[in-house]
Amino acid sequence: METYIKNMVCNRCIAAVENIFEKLKIPADTVSLGSVELSQPLTKEKMTALDAELKKYGFEILQDASQKLIENVKRIVIQKISELDIPEDFVLSKFISSKLSKDYSAVSKTFSLNSDITLEQYFILQKIEKVKELLVYNEYTLTEISGMLGYKSVQHLSAQFRKVTGYTPSAFKEMKKKIRIPLDKI
């Protein structure tokens, strides 16, 4: 049985959710971004206790099918971007459709209706947050970053970065401030 959990966006989130399950003595087979695989269903009491404990840490059990779909899409997007291996000819619609075995237009419509942004905008925002992270750590050049995140050119990355943040990547890098949005706030 799979339980979907909102706001799980990084490895620290996975560790926090694992700790919550251990604290409540609920055996979890697998904990991954956005979901926990259980070998048996939870009692109503355990579910209530789990939901209360998760909420203390900014997480939430998802009951609604559309919310589960959205969290699954977010998880897929975040994982893809974290791989730092997006080809230049990457097509988000084909990727999402193949990962979910669902019609992209239906997924995109559900995402847009239940979020403040489109799926494409979400993808761009996630990529820009990854660019910020990579710039702050100063491990890669802008040319390398643009290649890893599927941009056709450094100019395209720079233009998109400026449109989203109001800064050029160079200006952002010089500031050395972590002007990053928490992933669960996007």
Descriptive report:
This protein is α+β, with helices and mostly antiparallel strands. The protein is 59% helix and 7% strand. The chain has helices at residues 11-23, 44-56, 65-82, 92-100, 104-114, 119-137, 142-148, 154-165, 169-175; strands at residues 2-6, 30-32, 35-37, 60-61. The protein is globular, with a radius of gyration of 18 Å.
Write the layout of secondary structure elements.
Elements: E1 2-6, H1 11-23, E2 30-32, E3 35-37, H2 44-56, E4 60-61, H3 65-82, H4 92-100, H5 104-114, H6 119-137, H7 142-148, H8 154-165, H9 169-175
Antiparallel strand pairs: 1-3, 1-4, 2-3
Helix pairs in contact: 3-5, 3-6, 6-8
What's this entry about, in short?
The chain has nine helices and four strands; from the N terminus they run E-H-E-E-H-E-H-H-H-H-H-H-H. The protein has 186 residues and is of the alpha+beta class.
List keywords for this structure.
186 residues, alpha+beta, Alpha-Beta Plaits, Arc Repressor Mutant, subunit A, 4-stranded antiparallel sheet, 9 helices, 59% helix, 7% strand, globular
